[in-house]
Amino acid sequence: MRTNIEIDDDLMAAAMAAGGFKTKKEAVEEGLRLVRRRQVYNGLLALRGKLQWDDSDAAWAHASAEESPAMAVQEPQATYAVKAKAARSTKTPKPVAVKRSKVK
Known about the structure:
This protein is mainly α. The protein has helices spanning 9-19, 24-46, 58-62.
């Protein structure tokens, strides 16, 4: 969306320098993302003290993929056979004989 606004030059220069932005557009868009992210964080902070964390499963808290292979993610094996494609001929074509004629 195209929008024309007046922004304080000193503030824009400070924001661009602090964030390492090359353009004013990058700086403004990152500022808008920051405002959106802050709203989400405020929502999470509002839940402080209202959620219960159950860490009674000690195996889950202390397990790693090396210690417990059952906890590791494994790819399922294919239940079908893969057919090999017919091999293409790798023979090089025979050279064609060319007759030369004498030019008079």
